[in-house]
Amino acid sequence: MDRTTLRNVVSQFIAASAALLLLLVGCTCTVWAFLGKSGMEQIATSEADELSNIELNQLYGTADYQGQSTTQTQSIASAVAAHVRLPFSNPLKMLTSLLPETSAQAVQNSGAQTSLFQSITTIANNPQDIVLGWLPSTSSSSCIQLMADNPGMNVVSPGWLHLQDASGNLSGSVLPSVIEYAHQHNIKVWVMVDNQFSATLTHEVLANPKAESNLIDELVYQSRLYHLDGINIDFENLAAADRNLFTQFIGNLHRALSPIHVNLSVDISPDIVPLDDSLAFFHAGLADNADEIVLMAYDEHWSTDPDPGPVADLPWVTAGVNDLLDTGVPTDKLILGMPFYTRFWYVHSDGSVTSSAVSAGAVTDILRQDKAPLGVWDPKLDLMYTKFPSADGYTEVWYPTANTYQDTLSLVTQNGLAGVAVWSLAWSDPSTWTATVHSLRTEGVQTSHAAS
């Protein structure tokens, strides 16, 4: 090819490239003129909206949030966005603004809503944190709704199984649809097994090797059949004489569950006498034979207590934690139980006392409805307290605030505990739940929801 021909080919290529570039610029200008700046931002916003939905589904395991976007008629901009990928002009701002908000109150009870973005970013920084919600319901629809209403957990523990008889048989039913929903949303299922609060029944099973073996075999069978991720033993009101038998049972159960990779946790109540675990729960022995120990740090004053008082004040909770740590429970195995309920105490004119449990988050609304004083903050107990006259005497209430939960979570982090446990999702309300999850994630601790 001579020089003249080569020069002509190069000139034609340059001219064609310039024409193509001018055409591209013209098309871009036409689209910009047609859509305007807001249109282009809408395209990028559509991408941010898509990304925010992905983040929520992956990190929170549910898409049921306030402000969830609904299906709308597709605009020109959104149609373009479906086929054109443009860089975000301000991706952080767009993603933050598009994430739905919860009705969580700020720590100072301002009532302002807080974005889930901050919780999402902290979850990303703490991927191993456990957020376990206890499900007291035996209804599939109710269990699923409770999971949807309490975003942020990755483990649930439904109370489905019960020790039935002295032969070690179980009663109750596992709900496969709930397990399927949980697993679809990246949530593990640890089924709670209780002893119906019967010391006699529990003794009959633990003292009979055949009955104990039958119980263990049944739990292994249920775990395999329903693809359970864990078992939580909630045997309460045990006799002190069964201390060693119970510890032995937990060891045998753990050895049966470990090969099939099923987690085992055990709920225990605080010692009545500090540093004395000579009663039913041998702290160090149970910790050696279980994956987690859950301290049920509530019912400081129980439902039939003759003396009104808090369900769980901070000094009492702190003493309970220290007691378990001082009697052989490793910090990385101890989960602290927190209540999401409190009690209205009714002191009658004849001196008798009755009580009723209510959601902690509902107390202020109840007091306002009754035109009762909200009370004062007790810095020693880390609780609000109010007292007011009633028709047959007077009423007293000790109740927590966001500060209470934050201080309790600080207790967890300061001691390096494995996490916290909250009883229960049935008592949860949006503001209390989200404030707790937010504080939990900010502190970077593990969470669970323990049995009452």
TrEMBL record:
GO biological-process terms attached to the record: carbohydrate metabolic process
Listed SUPFAM superfamilies: (Trans)glycosidases (SSF51445)
Superkingdom as given in the UniProt entry: Bacteria
All residue ranges annotated as the GH18 domain in the record: 128-444
GO molecular function: chitin binding
Pfam families, sorted: Glyco_hydro_18
Protein name: Spore germination protein YaaH
Naturally occurring in which organism (per UniProt): Alicyclobacillus hesperidum
